[in-house]
Amino acid sequence: MSTHELYTAPVELSTWDVEAHGAARFTWEYDAGRDELLRLYQKGKDKQWDQVKRIDWDLEVDPYDALGVPEEAVSIYGTDIWDRHFANDQKAKDELAKHLVSWQFSQFMHGEQGAMICSARIVESVPDLDAKFYAATQTMDEARHAETYARFLQEKIGMVYPINTHLKALLDDTLTDSRWDMPYLGMQVLIEGLALAAFGLLRDMTSKPLPKQILSYVMQDEARHVAFGRIALRDYYKELTSAELAEREEFVVEGCWLMRNRFLQQEVWENMGLDVEACLEAARTAPYFQQFQSLLFQRIVPCVKDIGLWGPKVVKAYDEMGVLDMADLDLDALMRDDENRAELLDAERREMAARKDEVDQVIALAD
User: Fold this and answer.
1) Could you tell me the end-to-end alpha-carbon distance of the chain, in angstroms, rounded to an integer?
2) What is the arithmetic mean of pLDDT over 84-104?
């Protein structure tokens, strides 16, 4: 079945053409580069995996309860809109749950394709060979992630949403900028940083094994990707003028507002035939959703500070978003936990498989 048949709304074109700017840069320096990046490159090679083999696709998924999260997680829960349309209508609640998970994972999928293209642009445009080496491994990672989310949506949910306008706008800004560091800043820091936090929140909330596997394994890769952006940009931004830094800070502020608005789920409310403005207002004011939005920035804010983009405009924007206190979070500890959680899940699955084999052997002997 064509993916176009699963979209909730017709997509205008089969492909989206973005006019690329900037130079492709070759380097003839093949000596060892920065130790941190080379270690990350080695880890990128060592940690490659295959979604066909690592993920248990035989696990069943109820598309109307794919994540097993409570109703309270819906941003309009408890509002007049909820009471009128969903509170006493299980079928309507099921349909909304399917649309919400489809919207969420569709944006993950589109974002991963964007990350794949940005990684390829980094390979093309970054001047240092150590960064080219690592970005090449990331390009493969992102292809695997897009493949994984596409399979989940096609086989388990049966519904796909078009790319969100806010995500599309940030990708457009990132890819059309001729400066080689902008794919790093737009993708590695903003889009990947926010996606990593969103993955983590859903990974910790879901009670369903298949989405937990997908999110955990993707996050193991994404932790390396954010580290890659930090290392490369931290070094480069030390060399820029105050005017050049101010331009990057403006990009960060605009990008963060776009990412924050991306999660208001406007397309879902439209497809459900609801009062969109009322739903958006409910989402903006819902205590649960406000907390969710804030937590989405727990990896972006300390990363932006770490790479040196910490001028008054950035500080003011994060203060207005209510996320300024995240600046001093231990980003390295968060990333280590993201990687370790995937390894722990693998160990638990191996243990369960071993127990099953023992039981099967006992049953076979009894027969």
Assistant:
1) 44
2) 95
Residues forming a β-bridge with 7: 160
Q: Is residue 20 part of a domain?
A: no
Instruction: Look at residue 94 and tell me if it is in a domain.
Output: yes
Joined together, the tokens standing for residue 132 give 């080219």
Cβ atoms of 106 and 160 within 8 Å: the answer is yes
13, part of any domain: no
Q: 342-367: per-residue pLDDT in tens?
A: 899 989 988 887 887 777 777 777 76
Q: Tell me: the pLDDT tens digits for 27-38?
A: 777 776 678 888
pTM assigned to the model? 0.88
331 in any annotated domain: yes
CA distances (Å), origin 79, targets 65, 87, 91: 21, 10, 18
Q: Which domain holds residue 266?
A: 4-8+33-366
Helix (H, G, I), strand (E, B), or coil: what is residue 7?
strand
- Let me know: does 260 contact 66? Beta carbons within 8 Å: no
Amino acid identity at 144: R
What's the CATH code of the domain at 200? 1.10.620.20
Q: Coil, strand or helix: which one is 160? A: strand
CB 106 within 8 A of CB 161: yes
Number of structural domains found in the chain: 1
For helices 192-205 and 287-295, give the axis angle rounded to 10 degrees. 130
* C-beta separation of 150 from 3 below 8 A: yes
Nearest C-alpha neighbor of 172 from the set 79, 94, 258: 258
Long-range contacts of 32-39 (CB under 8 A, 24+ apart): 32/130, 33/128, 33/129, 33/130, 33/131, 33/133, 34/128, 34/130, 34/231, 34/235, 36/231, 37/128, 37/130, 37/131, 37/133, 37/134, 37/228, 37/231, 37/232, 38/130, 38/133
